[in-house]
Amino acid sequence: MKKIWFALFSLAFVLALGACSGNSGQSGAKKPARSATKTALMNFYMDLTNRINAQDRDLNTYEQAIAKTDDRPPKTELATMQKAAQSSAENVGKEVKNTKTPSKLNNYQSEIKTAVKDLQQSYQMKADELKKANPSLDAANKKLEQANDELGKVFKKAGLSPASLPDDVNS
């Protein structure tokens, strides 16, 4: 009797597994496309942040220096850092402006273009502000947050958790 119950239980288990795997077959055609979109989005994002990070080292160094309340560099050193940061911000702005959206992300073209435009404007705002004697990067950083929010919407629509652009480029 135990063998019969075991056989029936095993058969029911196999049928249940077959039924579960059968349901996913209905959307199987969309899964590879969605996966390709996620991959394209992640590759786009990583390429974008890598290109920014290749150009923004001096800018990040300056922003970290002015954020210090203790052990701040001397004014002459800050002035030198500020000039290098201004050049760095200009270079990043040019780099971001030349960003192309992969064709696999056409469904998100509008949002990505808006995010890239905001990102480019953020760095241009930083470059312009750093030409001043007493620069304030607050407005530029708000613009960077706007770009981050726009990219976050794209990540969510694609089924991904949003990344943090400021964290990925300001370190």
Counted by DSSP, the helix tally is 7
Task: Write down the secondary-structure element order.
Answer: HHHHHHH
What kind of sheet is the major sheet?
Answer: none
Radius of gyration: 25 Å
Percent helix: over 70%
Q: What would you call the shape?
A: elongated
What fraction of the residues are assigned to beta strands by DSSP? under 5%
Give the beta-strand count.
0
Average pLDDT reading: 85
Number of domains: 1
How is this structure best summarized?
The protein is mainly α. The protein contains seven helices and no strands. The N and C termini lie far apart (68 Å).
Sequence-ordered SSE layout with sheet pairings:
Elements: H1 2-24, H2 30-53, H3 57-67, H4 75-97, H5 109-129, H6 138-157, H7 165-169
Structure description:
- There is one protein chain.
- The protein has 171 residues and is mostly helical.
- It has one domain.
- The protein is built from 7 helices and no strands.
- Helix 3 crosses helix 4 and helix 4 runs antiparallel to helix 5.
- The longest helix has 24 residues.
- The chain is elongated, with a radius of gyration of 25 Å.
- The N and C termini lie far apart (68 Å).
- The N terminus is likely disordered.
